[in-house]
Amino acid sequence: MNPTKTTKRPPARRIAGLALALGLASALLPAPAAAQAGTLDQQQTDTAGGGASILGGDFGIASSLAQTFTAGGSGLLDQVDLHLRRGLPTLPLTVEIRSTDAGGAPGTTDGSVLASAEVGAASVPASTAEWVAIPFTPPAQVAVGGRYAIVAYTADESDYLWSRRDEFADYAGGEAFHSLASPPASWSALPDADLAFKTYVAVVAPGADLSIQMSAPSSVKTRSLITYEIDVSNLGSASAENVVLSDAVPYGTTFDSLSAPGWECTTPQPKKDKAGLVRCARASLASGASATIDLTLKVTATPNAGVINNVATVSSDTEDPVSSNNAAHAQTTVTR
Fold first, then answer.
1. pLDDT tens sequence across 27-58
2. What is the pLDDT of residue 57?
C-alpha cells in the first residue's frame, strides 16, 4: 500500500514573512499616475475630405499611411490623436513616430522609428470616425523646426480609415504619404491631402529623467525559471551620470542568471543565496537612450505562497526632477 502523499505547508513565520515582503513591496511602489499628454503642438483637424484606407496585406492593395509635420517646440512627443474609423480589423493598428529622410519623406528603416504604439480594434469606432488618443511610452524626442512623420499600418485582413482634409485646408508643415507595403518599404506622396492629426509635446525638465519598467509572466510553475525584462530609459534633457539599478531577489526565488550588456553588475550566488541584491551600474545613460537587463530567477516558492513580488529601482548622481517613475513592480502567481 502506497503511503498517503501530503503537502508540506510553510511555517507560520514564513507566511508572516511573505506578508511583510508584500507590504514592503507595496510601500516602495509609486502611486499610479493619471495619463497626461503634453501640450498640443501641431494639428490638422479638417476631416471634410473623407478618408484614406490602411489595409492589411491579404487585400492585395496593402496601404500604409503617413503624415509628416514640423515640430513647433522641443521636448517629448508623448501622444498623437488620429481621426479614425475601423472596417473589419482582426489585428491592431501600429502607429509610429519616425524621422524623415533628406527629401522630407518618412523613414523606412528600423532606425527611423522614434516611438511606437499599438491601437486595439476595440479602441477605434466602427460606425463614425472619431478622434482616438494614442500615447507613446517611451515618448519620441523632437526638436523645434524638425520634420517628423506619423506612420500607421496594420497586418493581414485588417482595415482602418484615417480621415483627411478637403483640398482647400492645406497643412503647411508637412504632407501625406502612402506605401503599398505594410510595414512600409517606400513612400509616394498622397496628392491634395493632409491626414487629420494632433501632436502633443511635453516640455523636457532640466536634468535627467530616469524611468524604469519591468515585465514578467503573469504566472509561473514552482521549481521553474522566471525572467524579468527590466528597461531603463532617460527621458530627460541631460545625460544621467553614474546610473545604478537595484533589485532585491524577491522571497520565493533564488538568483539564476543575468544578461546586462553595458552594465557592471554584482549578484548573489546562483541557485544558492535565498536573499541578496542584484546591483548594476553604468557610467552614464544619454538623453533619450534606453538600456535593458534580463534577470532570471529560480522559483522556490510553492503554490501555497501565492505570488512573487519583484521591485526594481533606478537612480543616478544627476538631478532627476521626476521621481514617480524610478521604481517598477511585477507580480507573478505561483502554480503547480
1. 333 333 334 578 999 999 999 888 898 887 65
2. 62
Q: Which three cell numbers stand for residue 107?
A: 523613414
For 145: left if phi > 0, alpha if psi spans -120 to 50, otherwise beta; the answer is left
Of 200, 183, 190, the C-alpha closest to 162 is 190
Q: How far apart are the two ends of the chain, measured CA to CA in Å?
A: 26
CA dihedral 91, 129, 114, 63 (to 10 degrees): 60
pTM for this entry:
0.56
DSSP 3-state assignment of 14? helix
Sign of CA pseudo-dihedral 249, 250, 252, 258: negative
β-pairing, 307-315 vs 240-248, is antiparallel
Query: Tens of pLDDT along 286-325?
Result: 988 999 999 999 999 888 778 999 999 999 999 888 888 9
Question: Which residues does residue 295 pair with via DSSP β-bridges, in sequence order?
Answer: 228, 258
